[in-house]
């Protein structure tokens, strides 16, 4: 079963924001953009895995943090998929975020 999440964010132009999603790279899955960002409104600054604070277990999941920079007022979207980079047909989760950028 594929899991899907939709949310709306209100952010300020010029102020970076972070999307934090559950992830476990030991499974081969990672969060990736499913569609290119609209470069008029957003830039992806970083995409990194944050391990759990107490990493006592090998293969324990953590979080993937994607940091975005809103460039100007307007509305755009971020579409993400949780897939294995080598197998785009086997995606476990999808996340769709509507971003309202104010000045």
Automatic annotation (TrEMBL):
Proteinase inhibitor I42 chagasin domain location = 13-98
Q: Which domain of life is it from?
A: Bacteria
Give one GO molecular function term. Answer: cysteine-type endopeptidase inhibitor activity
Question: Which InterPro entries does the record match to this protein?
Answer: Chagasin-like_sf, Cys_protease_inhibitor_I42, Prot_inh_I42_chagasin
User: Keyword set for this entry?
Assistant: Protease inhibitor, Thiol protease inhibitor
Keyword Kinase among UniProt keywords: no
- Tell me if Oxidoreductase is a UniProt keyword of this record: no
- What name appears for this protein in its UniProt entry? Proteinase inhibitor I42 chagasin domain-containing protein
Q: Which organism is it from?
A: Brevibacillus nitrificans
